[in-house]
Amino acid sequence: MTSGNESCTAGPTSMSYLTCLTYILEEWTGVEDIGDYLSYAFYILWVLFPLVVVFVLPGVIVILFYVSILWLHIYKRKNEIKEAYSHDVWIAAREMLATIWDGHGRIWHGYELHGVENIPQGPGLVVFYHGATPVDYIYFTARLHIMKKRRCSVVADHFVFRVPG
Fold first, then answer.
1. Number of alpha carbons in the 13 Å side-chain half-sphere of residue 66
2. How far apart are CA 8 and CA 17, in angstroms?
3. Catalytic residue among 73, 87, 109, 130
4. CA 148 distance to own-chain centroid
5. Which residues of the chain have pLDDT under 50?
6. CA dist., res. 33 & res. 22, Å (int)
7. Is 114 a catalytic residue?
8. What is the pLDDT of residue 84?
């Protein structure tokens, strides 16, 4: 085995870095055949990876909800004086939240919006399906705001209004 001053590639046979790491861990911990334990740990990680993915996405959505609410609350407190003299204080807040939610929709779900040119300039009605959470409506309004600088009102189920914030 190598001493403290030698590297794993020195000597008559060179080895891969993973093999070198295994030998170093065996010496450091005193456990023989640590490679078997590591391969078992990697197997368990591989088996449980889908469960981690299933719980990460909803967690990210909930965190984004609360970060958006917190950011709007701070923005409101910061701009209370300006609001008395200007009617367009919330433009920056809308732009920022639209960009955040649009980025989330594009990265996590590949969300795209087609047919925006068919929405009339005046009032219109957009009917769409939403799943268990109203996230697709948030993605829609964010993308519509970025593309057309228009806001959209919603007629929705009572569940939408029970979402915190």
1. 5
2. 7
3. 130
4. 25
5. 1-2, 4-5
6. 9
7. no
8. 52
